[in-house]
Amino acid sequence: MAAYGLYTHIASNKFRSMLLLAGLFLLIYVLVYAGALVAEVMIDSGRTVDYYLTRASRDLVSAFPWATIAAAAWIVIAYFFHQRMIDAVTGGESVTRQRQPRLCNLLENLCISRGIPMPKLKVMDSLALNAFATGLNRSQYAITVTTGLLKALNDKEIEAVLGHELTHIKNGDVQLMVIAVIIAGVVGFFGELFFRLFTNLSWNSSGGGGGWSSSSSRSSSSSSDRDSKGSGGGAIIVIIIAVALIVLAWLLSQVVKLALSRSREFLADAGSVELTKNPDAMISALRKIENRGELPDATSAVMELCVDNPREGFADLFATHPSVKSRVDALVKYAGGHDPGPLALPDETESQDVPSAAGDQPPPATHGPWSDTPPAQPNNPPPLPGTTPRQGPFGPLQGPLQGPWGPRR
């Protein structure tokens, strides 16, 4: 599907995202098939590879409705309770205009200018600079920002970040990402379940015969000629196939989830510029958020919804967001913005100005007449010849005693 402008790019991205989401849903049945392979080996460990593959295919057909119902139930539960789960993890709290008039006014102005229903506003107490949008329908949409973001960014930059999240909501990115996280969670859950099951089986396996302890009683009646053919050889191959399918399903679920997230951040940045008409505000906001968005208590699923996710895997393969530099370069190229480069926050600048070494300390204040150090004596001239020093209240007086008409002899 060719794309020639912003809106056609959005439509094309939605079409590709739906295909990726359908593929992500199919991974659940891959896991069911892998589980069927393991179950068949547990029932009888002395069969051939073809036998296990055929039996697992039949088991998949039988389990297809139940797997679909279980996945649908998981999605329904997450549909109604995902916001509560996210709030429980992040500590986000709903705010009113009385508590956050600045934030509410900025969001309301954006929504009114474009005729967008105003989502709920939530604030989480964190020094990190980040924000994210959640919700699967109009009554659930919410934008959560951190207190660190409100403190570090000015009004135009906060408006740009809010425009970024509103674009995610308007383009339907939030729904797709939440569903993708839910389905990927199903894949990860069952993948871990099967992996633990396989680990337990491997520890309980009999050392000499190669059969599984759970199936030893059932396979004891097997004929000796089947054992002579290398009993357990086919079971080991099938277990390896099942483990490979589980690992492949998990990796593909992560790749699909990352593809959905990375491709949408550029469009959300462009949508923010369209809403605010200020590319420089979006660029400076990204530069301030850069490497300062880590939410320590948040799960990976929550970080994937944020404006920026600093968590990266090896060789940037599993980074859920494109780099800030690539996003800024796109805004400079296509929106005409100006890149100021990496920006330091005011608090960071002040901490650099505070002297740390002893030599940088300012000179000590001059002592007064009541301090421990006596005041410095004036540099009086030496006494004149033929005169003797005279005592004063603070020590000897240097020089002749002065009178109103000159020195006294």
Automatic annotation (TrEMBL):
Peptidase M48 domain location: 98-333
Keywords for this protein: Cell membrane, Hydrolase, Membrane, Metal-binding, Metalloprotease, Protease, Transmembrane, Transmembrane helix, Zinc
Transmembrane is among the record's keywords: yes
InterPro entries per UniProt: HtpX_protease, Peptidase_M48
Cofactor binding, per record: Binds 1 zinc ion per subunit.
Compositionally skewed regions (Pro residues) per UniProt: 375-386
Annotated GO biological process: proteolysis
Domain of life per record: Bacteria
Pfam families, sorted: Peptidase_M48
Chain intervals for the UniProt region annotation (Disordered): 206-231, 338-409
GO molecular function, a single term: metalloendopeptidase activity
Biased composition (Low complexity): 213-223, 387-409
Gene3D superfamilies for the chain: Metalloproteases ('zincins'), catalytic domain
Cofactor(s) named in the record: Zn(2+)
Transmembrane segments: 20-43, 63-81, 176-198, 232-252
Homology family: Belongs to the peptidase M48 family.
The protein, known as: M48 family metalloprotease
Organism per entry: Bradyrhizobium pachyrhizi
Lineage of the organism: Bacteria, Pseudomonadati, Pseudomonadota, Alphaproteobacteria, Hyphomicrobiales
